[in-house]
Specification:
27% helix; elongated
């Protein structure tokens, strides 16, 4: 199942993040290589992360995100949103 994960910063001091950025990138790469993390983006208006994950369920998505160093350090958290396929195209073939 696909999940959208929206980052929320918990600490406003940019210096608090610095020691964790390389380990964060390393862990993100590991999750990407494993197939759990499918896409990674930044919002340009907030510079927060937007991730797409492919996991069995929301608990697995949260567990994967909890392995990120910035989450472990209490600097960020994620809102996890389940996604389902768009079914609106069926309206094109409705005979009514």
């Amino acid at each position: 199942m696909k999940f959208l994960a929206l980052e929320h910063e918990l600490v406003s001091d940019p210096d608090a993040y610095q020691p964790h950025l390389k380990p964060e990138a390393t862990r993100a790469w590991e999750l990407y290589q494993s197939g759990l993390l499918r896409e990674l983006y930044f919002r340009p208006d907030q510079h927060t992360a937007v991730l797409i994950l492919e996991c069995a369920d929301a608990d697995a998505a949260r567990a994967a995100l909890d392995t990120l160093p910035l989450v472990k350090a209490g600097l960020i958290t994620f809102e996890v949103i389940p996604l389902v396929p768009y079914d609106g195209f069926s309206r094109l073939f409705d005979s009514k």
